[in-house]
Amino acid sequence: MDERQALAAFAALGQEHRLRVVRALVAAGPEGLAAGVLAETVNVAGNNLSFHLKELSHAGLITSRREGKSVIYSAAYAGLSDLVQFLMRDCCQGHPEVCAPAVAALAACDCTTGDALHA
Amino acid sequence: MDERQALAAFAALGQEHRLRVVRALVAAGPEGLAAGVLAETVNVAGNNLSFHLKELSHAGLITSRREGKSVIYSAAYAGLSDLVQFLMRDCCQGHPEVCAPAVAALAACDCTTGDALHA
DNA sequence: TCTACGTTTCAACGATAGTTGATATGTAGG
DNA sequence: CCTACATATCAACTATCGTTGAAACGTAGA
């Protein structure tokens, strides 16, 4: 991920409705949510949401697929992962002992309570 | 960290000059950089930089201390850690196996090549 | 205390982002 | 087909953000 992509991603996440969309999609898992459901969830008008979804998609944070009359959106976990890595990568430039707590704290999140990391 | 703080932080990082400032400060380590040095590094006018530094400080991403005539800024590693945790926290809601790759990827960053995690 | 230096604040302008309403696309069912 | 439904696109308006220049503040040395 280059700076331009990271900027787009951070800017996308720096907007109330879009941040909620991403969190809702992340929580919803790979199956995703329909645009209409998302509109109700974040309480945003459909046309407005469409604008934000396009921006999130362009930022590589979400993906979409059509399913009948609905368009299903889901979180782009790879994109989120890249963004986190981009943010944390430079913390290691000569001072790994400084950023280690951040990594350790993340490693202590609920994700590690499962056996997913050992799969 | 609540949503309002996370929004401020993401919005702050979604701006070219501010993102570069944060990365420069993160790379510089705890000793930080003077405002003037930062202005040269990111190629931004001093008064303009001051505006961005204030915003980053308000977002909890950087801290400052006066040192003689200079004001030294440094990255707020705790704030960055909180932000990463906020972004990744919800990935665990019922689907830990999905977000695990993101955590694993981050854990593979250079931070872990040192012995900082085992200190 | 006077001057020089580094940094910050302020007001104003131009550019950009977000919302809204109307309209268009695309899809399923009668 | 034609209608109903879900979503996307477009133009216009408003508000907010980022930049600039001038000026103020705080600090150190002569």
UniProtKB/TrEMBL annotation, chains A, B:
TM spans (from-to): none
NCBIfam families for the chain: HTH_metalloreg
Superkingdom assignment: Bacteria
Record's protein name: ArsR family transcriptional regulator
Protein's organism: Methylobacterium nonmethylotrophicum
Residues making up the signal peptide according to the UniProt record: none
Record-linked CDD domains: HTH_ARSR
InterPro entries tied to this protein: ArsR-like_HTH (IPR011991), HTH_ArsR_DNA-bd_dom (IPR001845), Metal_resp_trans_reg (IPR051011), WH-like_DNA-bd_sf (IPR036388), WH_DNA-bd_sf (IPR036390)
HTH arsR-type domain sequence ranges: 1-95
Source taxonomy: Bacteria, Pseudomonadati, Pseudomonadota, Alphaproteobacteria, Hyphomicrobiales
Keywords recorded for this protein, A-Z: DNA-binding, Transcription, Transcription regulation
